[in-house]
Queue: 4 jobs
Job 1
Amino acid sequence: MRLDGGSAGIERAVDDELQFHFEMTMRDLMANGMSPDDARREAERRFGDVQRHREQLATIDRARAGRERRAEWWSGFAQDVRYAVRGLRLSPGFTVAVVLTLGLGLGANAMMFGIVDRLLFRPPAYLATPDRVNKLYFARTNRGDELISSYTGYRSYLDVRENTTAFDAMTPFYVEKLAVGDGDATREMNVAMGGADLWKMFDAKPVIGRFFTAAEDTPPDGARVAVLSYAFWQTQFGGRADVLGRSIDIGPARYTIIGVAPEGFNAFSSLPVVAFLSGVAQTAASGVHGMRPPWYANYGFNYFEIFARRKPPVGAAAATADLSRAWQIAYRNRIAQQHGMTAFAIAKPRAFVGPVLEDRGPKARREAKVATWLVGVAVIVLIIAAANVANLLLARALRRRREIAVRIALGISRSRLLMQLVTESVILALAGGFLGLAFAQWGGAAVRRLLLDESGESAAALTDSRTIVVVAALAVVAGLLSGLAPVFQTTRADVAAALKAGSREGTMQRSRLRAALLVAQAALSVVLLVGAGLFVRSLFNVEHVRLGFDSDQLLWVQPNSRGVKMDSVQQVQLRNDLAAAARRVPGVENATRALTVPFWQTWDFELYIDGIDSVAKLGDFTLQAATPEFFRTMGTRLLRGRGITAQDRADAPKVMVVSGLMAKKLWPNQDPIGKCVRMSPVVTSNGVSTPAPCWTVVGVAEDVRRESVSEPEPHYYLSTEQFHPADGGVFVRTHGDATDHADEVRRALQKVMPGASYVAVTPMTTVIAPYIRSWKIGATMFAVFGVLALVLASVGLYSVIAYNVTQRTHEMGVRVALGAQARDVVALIIRGGLRVVAPGVVLGAIIALVASRWVAPLLFNVSPKDPPVIVAVMVTLLAVAVAASWLPAMRASRVDPNAALRSD
């Protein structure tokens, strides 16, 4: 029995069936001798609750009808899929062009989503309750500006933990590069330190062994136990279970291995971690960063970030209020311990809870901001690809209009035809999505290294389930959008007109639509290429900005005593020996001791100058202590006076070299040579206070950029013999690129190091790289996507012009027959291409100008409305239009008039 008409039809059918069976029962009973009344009563007794039978039968019939409809739908869908696949196989060139075009657009989106997902959306692996875990941020006012930091000291952490009630777990966390291993196998690797509450926040179980406990993280010493990362356990210990109980040298101490973390676990670090040490107690007790007891009672050593988990009923606002009260207590305690702290009323300290992911918080990196722009760029590439596919589908629809008309005339419904065409479009899009995922996985490694800084996440595959779902959704949307126009134009066509039409019928309307799509492609391509040009110029500017030293030829050598006891005299001698040994290495020009490292480490002190009420109000003045070889080694130019010399010993008059910016700030319109600068206002001896000695300015050096490539900072230089001679490391200047000499220098200097101590050798280009990465990312990715958009737009333009030339064969034949020269035909076709592209170029330039204010903060020393870039892009697009029009134009110029005039 087949039921139609929905629930009403089913109910009528059930009633009919019940009535039929009731009457048949009565008939049988009467045939056996019962009267009609007795037969009716007996039948009613046998049937019992008719309504219940009616509902049961209705339910059965509805289920049967549903199965039949689903089976019918699946049968029709399978037929549509087979029909679409068969049609696409008959047009391999068209199929490959569409799939490849969509694959490029979807591949760009797959790459960018996989990266932005890790930067901004995906919580750390194994985090149990991401919605309740926060990073804590601390703010204070300085010179009218509020400074926000996520770092604080251990004593401040204890104050916050003791004076808050909104959290049920809280841990300090810190990742440091420490020496791991011993002997020649020693390498600096990322090691994490955290409190015992760290494990409460993660749903992570040790692969073997256990995690450290609160008892093993109790000041002042704690227990020296370590949990290895899964990757380190596999690569260094072969995944052996007997690793438990073995010892491993990490930093200046030896630790006992008690467990192995699960695969992919990095806690709150965005970098791969090789080991998790038992909290911060034993790490600080081991002397990392010079921390010494009573480090746990000292408000200095601000190396830790704090992560906390809110209690279930506590919201972010309530947690922030509770945290701010505790942080203000900690700040008052710090003022009582440390002199020189900004007064509470001026500092206005506050704290707040923020996202766990750094790039979603108030301290988001510039790279994350560029990455979010690149997501928009990838979407634009996909739009251009979809427009290109729409043009291809329109051309295919024109060729198939008679076929479609015949099928409609033979009785196929327009809705079924629409379903078939949509199915074909979606199949193409899904094939493009599959290819896009392959592109993302194949080409994504370089992008991951560029954007994720070779972190642990960069090693993970981009094509995980989240990315696959997003790409599949984008593929379906792109397929539907690109196929809607040709589908509706085809299914709404006049059947009679289509059956009688010649090859040129209906071309005009569809050509206008295809031209509109080309205008959109050209406009979006201009936007992307302008962005690429601006970032390329920014990268050029930042790479050629004068830093005040020659970074390409410099290595920074940092000695690490690793527990070897040396007094200040021995440390000075070690650094002198390292500099002397470096000068003997082939390929090394010079070497110098130094105290600080640009972009890594700065020192500053409060200065006092006669006639200036507060030097601090004029800015922060950073210092460098150096040997006489410093300026030659660094390549820093002296503008006036002299540098540090061998005569500037500890017992000689104290001298200082200042940067040009420092001289300008402190002594505007004056000669700085001979000026007196004091490091403290007075010195006290035997109860008698006298003015502090002068550091006399003897030279002016060029400005240096130490904390940002954007602006130089006021800076000064002191002699290592006169200021902190035991600290710092060695700068080594090489012939050519310093990176090529780094390993050779390390091996040579390691021989000088006593005992288990070691040297870390780092090219200065590596130190500076994070500060220029955002411009490098922007230049590289905008250029890649811009070129991809340009290729797609040029292919789309070529296909449209080539198709139009084919449609105008008759017209071209007439023109040639009437005396038109080949050059006239070529000029006609090229002008037609320019007429299509020029409006898009102008529109794109306008969009780029409007969007310039948002991209301006991401550029370096270039205007977002830079005329050379915009003009160059516009000329490039017009040149591409001419090039794309040339081949069809040449084909049109060679049309045979006789053949053209005989054509339809």
Job 2
Amino acid sequence: MTHKTPPRLAAWLLTRISGPSIAGDYEEIYQEWVRDHGDRTARARYWTQVWRSLPMLTANALFGSTSMFKNYIKSAWRNILRRKRYALLNITGLAIGLAVCLLITAYVLHEKSFDTMHTSYDRIYRIIGTIPMGGQSLRNGVVSAPLGPAAAASIPEIESEVRLLRRHNTSVQVGNVEFKEEKIFLAEQAILQVFALPLHRGDPKSALEAPFTVILEEDLAKKYFGDRDPMGQTIRIMLNQVYDFTVTGVMRRLPSNTVLRRPMIASFATLQQIQPDALTHWESWGSFTTFVRLHERADPEAVSTKLTALARSNLPEEEQDASYSLQPISRIYLDNTSISNNLDNSGSSSRLYVFSAVAMLMLLIAAINFINLSTAKISGRLKEVGIRKTCGAVRGHLIKQFLTESLLLTTAAMVAGLLLFSLFKPRLDLYLGKTLILGMLATPWIFPLLAAVVMLVAFGAGSYPALFLSRAPAAVIFRSRLPLGISKSGMRRTLVGIQFFIAASLITCTLAVLKQVRFSETKDLGFDQTGLIVLYNQDAHHLENAEVIKRRLLNATGIISASSVDHFPYGQNRSLSTIRHEGTPEDVLVQSMEVDADFLPTMGLRLITGRNFQSIRTSDAQTLLLNEAAVRHLGFEEPLGKRIQRNDKNYHVIGVVEDWHTNSIHSPIHPTIFFPAEASAAGLVIRLPRQNSREVVARIREFWAEFMPGQIFNFAYIEDLHLHSYNEEKRLASLLVFFCGLTVVVACLGIFGLAAYSTEQRTKEIGIRKVLGSSLTGIILLLTQSYGRWVLAANLLAWPAAYFIVHKWLQAFAYRTTIGLDPFLLSGLITMLIALFSVIFQTLKAALADPVRSLRYE
């Protein structure tokens, strides 16, 4: 009979896992099957037996047998208990590293997942306008109102469109109680279909169809109405004046990773009632955020070209150079560079890179700690290895033993890290004001990746003693000679140096960030913002009573001074316009404000040259003031008397005002022109007295209720508006301080453990030195000097890297602090003190011990 060979792949698997002897036995059985049942049946049975045997054979190949595996676990557990301090340090350091990595990963994933929860989000785009103004091309997130409906009607690739109008700091009245909502939308009915907002009360097909209807988020409905049913209730909302709205729907709480997150959405049809002209006027700049959903396989570039052609066919002749493009909704939050009028506080890709780097460095430090402490105990287990080899243990068994122990420690660290993550994540959510999602359903790949990292660390920590210590012959071990390549104290010190290089870099960067945040908060803005409020009189637009209300407030409330303005600039509220001046026919882009004669003294601004507006001069209606930045921008050497044209009206310069910051210090001071305010100016800047300011605000509120009964009291502290620009930097600084502190803690755990082990190894040496007359100081210096050298070297290498990173980060600020030497010297001092304290704590304990006991050690 011809000899038949088993299936090659199956035989190869069997040989690789179980060895040639068992594979040979299986081959003999295979020959019997061929003889009795035929070749095809024999092959099928062979494969079946291989698959059935594969789990058992794999387990035996890895662990020898179940009893051997139990022995490995038992021995590993005993070794851990015997060295509880090192095990605790190992587990704690790695657990903190894993927890921090998970927290930062949750934050990064949240920021990168904005608006990906919508159905067909990959087909939803925002229309962006690019408008040349004053020699610049400005990208704008809002467009004119007619563009959206016209595009949906004439461009076949567009499936549907949605228009939104944002309102900030809107006053709302429910019964006799007043509220202020930071952000609301007026939106078309299609928003409930295109974005599938979670409406659980009301009809999603008609909730926003009628004018003066509104839907509320469930938390807001609870705040307004308590346990009462909100459906059908009336609330009063201040738009250009106060209107009554009926609640027609209640939304479930929207996720925090969407730019559409608003607690209140009013119907867009309301605008057709109160501002019908605004919805039919074509202009290049516009005020409306417009989304379109494209049909499948539509080309966004082709649609952008058609949008530009459509807009230009309707825009005035002087605005024909405007162009339009589409921005994916999932990129709005992060891709916001130089786009005005964004929907929400924008994210930052650079911020995500910073935190991702911190997460990786933190995990690296934790892994280095783990490996360092694991390899440091090698020489203490030489006799154990020698006895095991004498009793018949082969090298493979020893390798499995060390790897099992390392895996047990890393598994415990992973469990502890997950517990820490679960404990601190709600607190991070609360601090950020966001709900970070990280779990098996939302991110099913994260935990397999985490398990892979843990396995990698376990192998890195266990492979060195497993591969090298197990190689040593028993005779060499019992002669107390370390096998070649095992004594690696130099390697451990190098790893400690790497740890403190990372720690010093992070500390330096964090101190520089704190320094810039402090600079932002304390920089002289050019005016005294303490006690300044801005109040809006919406009736001034049609009653033209700005001056009358200002005078009544001055006489009746005890305020120090007040000024009528058209608006107060902050954030994106810059009120850009173009002007022309003598000597150039080109338009120049500037920031403009309309103010009265009381503005400079109320704000505390200094006039450098010329004079201020004077209310008694009717001729001042054709005058203006410039700030210093405008004088430089316009190229005036002698600005007084210069002629400037705006909207076909001519003005002449009568004074120059010292520069002051209207926006955050991220951007330079804008060239600003002050025009004389008209009686329709809606804003009032009020200077409160330093004493009893709350009582004065209460009197202003009473005045408002008496003389402006149709308006809601809508005011804000200018100091709050200014500081709001730095909220993200403050959060960044606080989180960096927290994570940097944890990095230092983990680094300390590692050096603490190494110092403890090193001291234990030199216990007899310390005893002998004390007997021979060595002083306490001499012993401490002997044991700490090597660590001090490595920490100093780590700082010297960390400083150039930190300087490069900080220098790049500070470029985002138009006004920034000098880096100086203090962050570098302070980080060096902190790391050196921490390292030396960790080492001295251990060495002092050994140095103070009785030398008799030290000599009896072991």
Job 3
Amino acid sequence: MTAPLHIGIVACSAEGAALCYRTICIEAGALLGHHAHPEISLHGLSLADYEARLERGDWPGVADLMLASADRLAKAGADFLICPDNTIHAAYRYVEPLSPLPWMHIAEVVAGEAASLGLSRLGLIGTRWLIDSQVYPEKLESRGIGWLRPSPRERDEISRIIMHELVEGIFRPAAVAAHQRVIASLKARGADAVVLGCTEIPLIVNDENSPLPVLDSTRLLARAALARAIHGTA
């Protein structure tokens, strides 16, 4: 059997990157044999550096950080890249033309899963930067899938929880309840599933406690990367 491709992970926040890494390693065993998984390299610059650029709306600056990680991962021998952070995909248009390696786009992976499930309208939750962006709308619309954003107040509430609790490994019942309220509101407006558009949200929200079926962007990206590594399509 040909050796799997080497996966490069461009990390931003720790919890989301760790969940993505763990998912690849654990789920690979069923496909490659007990405890087997592809070679994986992970590089992450300081979240504070990303956040400073996000607060300024400096998307080319965000892209510079992503490309710095991409260069290091290319030198480490990675064959392709993933980024388990939805928000910074808003800088992808600056990254792709200059990247030394091909990337898998997290929203494209999620949109593909939604299409395969026959979903017609998705609720979006994540940081305020993500929800205000076109990261998901453009990928969903290209597949004929509708989408709904939370209200501005709901966006601020979820974003605060993400940036001040989840990325720091703080998981509180109140945070779960807040996400459930927002998802229930999206359901009432006609969403048939919800995109967990922050890679930390799956640590507190899942199909068992969500008012809507969930599309777990973290694990979907990890599984897509694993499939790509095994089938050798760099």
Job 4
Amino acid sequence: MPGSFGLYVSLIHSVAWTLESRRGKELKTMISRPCLVAAVLLFTALMAQTGRSAAPAEPVYDLAVSFDIPRSTIAGSVKSAVLRGERRLFRAGRLMIRAVEVNRQPVPFQLRGGELTFLSPESGALEIRYEGRFPPPPAVSSSRDTSFPNVIGAQGIFLTSIWYPQSAGLAIYRLKASLPRGYVAVSEAETIDMTQSAGGVAFDFQFPHPVDGLSLVASDRYQITRERFGDVELSAYFFPEERALAATYLAHARKYLQLYEKLLLPFPFKRFAIVENFLPTGLAMPTYTLLGRDVVQLPFIVETSLGHEVLHQWFGNQVYAGGKGNWTEGLTTYLADHLYAEQKGEGWSYRKQILLDYRNYLRDDTDFPLKDFTARYDAGSRSIGYGKAAMVFHMLRDMLGDEAFFGALKTVLREKAFQRVSWDDWQGAFERQSGTKLGWFFEQWLARKGLPELQMSGFAVSREAQGYALDLDLSQQGDIYRLDVPVKILYRSGGEKNLRIRLEEKSKHARIDLAEEPAEVVIDGNYDLARRLSASEAPPQIAGLIGADKPIVVLPARDGDYYQEVIAGWRARGSEVKSAEALSDADLRSAALVLLGGDQPVARRLYGKVETPPHGFSVTVKKNPRNPAKSVGIISARSRAEAEAAFGKVFHYGKYSQLAFENGRNVAATVESSERGMRQSLKDDPPTVEMTSLTKLSGVVEKLARKKIVYVGEQHDNFSHHQVQLEILRGLHGQSPKIAVGMEMFQKPSQAALDDYIAGTIDERTFLKRSEYFKRWDMDYHLYKPILDFARAQRLPVVALNLPREIVNQVATGGLDALSQEARREISSDLDYSDQEYRGRLKEIFSAHPEPQEKKFEFFYQAQILWDETMAESVDRFLKSHADYRMVVLTGAGHLQYGSGIPKRAFRRNGYDYAIVLSDAEVKSGVADFVVFPEPATAPTAPKLGVSLDIRDQRMRITSFGKESGAEKAGLKVDDTLISLDGQPVSVIEDVRIALFYKQSGEPVKVKARRGAEELEFDVKLR
């Protein structure tokens, strides 16, 4: 029945037209309440006859407001139509409701918890009159994550939240704002009428589309610049100081409108305005964007943020977020900020930064599913609602192709204009455009928190008849996702092969046929997957400190007054503050750290030595070598003024690794390099020895003569390695007699005994006793005797490099926290844990032991670093106090390989040139400067008594006998107590080892022992 339906439309239009008070025309024709009821009844009957259903029409509200700016107050009224018995609810916030009337008769209402409710006694015209006060706040933060309150003041008017009684849901609003003369106002509007009068100026804003609510901004300083883009009026409302920027902003706005009309649909409104705000905002409302003064002045805003706000006119202001979950920011981020990076060939970098932000700002206890995102309230929520959502749209586009992707966007814009659109609506649109069911996709990316974590392993390359084959394993941790993993294989020739591997299980083995020999595999090098980044892909960033859970701030060693603002700022973020002395080793591993002061002792405990930029204020962020998942920030200030001028700005530079400021102005910002994609080298170029360059050890010694320090490694029980050490020592001494010998085998308390022995004031037996050699080093002294004999003969200083064994063992068992304060004074204050390759090699060694445990490895690692640093410090101290000396350092090869143990740590302290010589080492790039392959040799060995001994109750008693024991054959028995050997008293096991050192196998030794109360003597043949 088209005729009847047309009658209904005509009647309803009549009712709506008559109920409104037409602005500017003073036309107030009223319709009777029975007529309104008849219209509604007629509509219901006609819909029943035609069998049609109609969506409920959005309500229409007429707002009229005026202002008392000196008092920061607003007075206004809201008018609409209401039906009898209808219960209305409005959000009123802090507004004062002066009256609620229906047909000019008061209606009882309730105002509770910021909500206004009433029941209409009859149908007719509703009017709500109200007042509100919105004084300027005492201070305004410039944080990107700040939401600003309503403001009415001398600087201007800013009203975006509840500044009028606001009904729930979409509605059509018509606004009349009365202001003092000279003011210019902006609100959502397709058309704006301005009327001047003696008392002021009135603005009529007409916006015919349903919206969630209205905003209003006004100022008496606006200067307007207007242009056109086709049928769209472009305008810029700028303050006089920034008006020169208007032309640039409008030119870029035209560029963005042209871009998005090509990608999407025509611009949805008749006008678009760029409005400057006295508050530091970045907001987009239908028909305009509101940018703060400090934002407008930034030179990069026209290239980034402006386009983002323009795109919001389609997504967010033409179609609205609906249901549960806000998709608008993610889609806008993807088609604005990300698109601009993509146009420069940097889309991969933008996507990587999204994933870095996710890694830095979110923890398991703060993460949540994307479907639950409604609005940004901190950096973590932004990483989900903007970043993760943008990645979801990228993966959709990557999977479906541009035609289906943009086809779905256009369909939603056409079919859902000025309606709420949910994630379910998007799923339906993409399914229709692609002909593909996507429930699995939206479930895994919207309903789950977190991101998948990929791992790769099992690499093997084989030669095939037609080329090569690559085997590899892909796996994922935690929840299982369905992923098409991008894989790039780089050929040794320089070419590449790209493919995707479907991974929808915990792990998968893949075999890839290749035309050429592969050199490297790269997984997701363009960051097309939303995934957790591997450690090698993640540089240290300031964001790692910002997003950390309760970082520990460590007070400076000096100039504490400089950092008061910094300390207060971190405390406000929930950080704990400690002194360096109070920081435990467990704290070093478990928390993100903010270290104050360029000479911070905790930095030396972690990195040995840290160079901070020579600027007024600097921030340097590093990975925590004790726990690479945590960040360490080192903040240095030259004065309190420098710190106060710069500190508040640091939180806007989250993606950087190092910052420097002078007088509050940023002068340097850098990001530490990191890998692009998960990478695995498949075949290293093998090391090659050029036979014509082979030389003898004497030739090596000639080259070593130019080095301040020569490190010569050993396998402790290999006598040929010690012979190499002695030959090098002799050769270098022959070239220059001022040479010292540093030895791992002796601990620092033995230094006096070493000095006396080298000086000839004590004999060897006394030296072995006083140095406790046999107690503190397990190797036969015959291995080292020739070296010590040469040093004694030539009077070469021998330096005890090592820590007392008790301290090393204590750390290996319980970590640095197990040390007493007295023991802590014995250890080096500079401990560099940053060599992760060294850590990896040590862990591989440790894992070969039975039942390796992570905690035990940490203690083992601490002990190893402490050992290395102590020896490096001992080398450094001697050479600095004996500037005319060089040193030959003799240690186990593990302390020298790749320079990781001692050499680089000594170099960090003094910068002295050095060389590393190893014996029988595997030839690998960088392992040493020289590798020697000596002829096997056997050292003399001390004979054995053939007993096991135990000291208890000041008795050294025999507990058992070895096989073919000469002592047992001589008549000694278990529980006999040893008294002397060859007349030399023995009270500890080391006394026995010293006595035996001077005997030969097959020789007799006279043993005196106590059995009960009787002393007995035995002649024992040694083996």
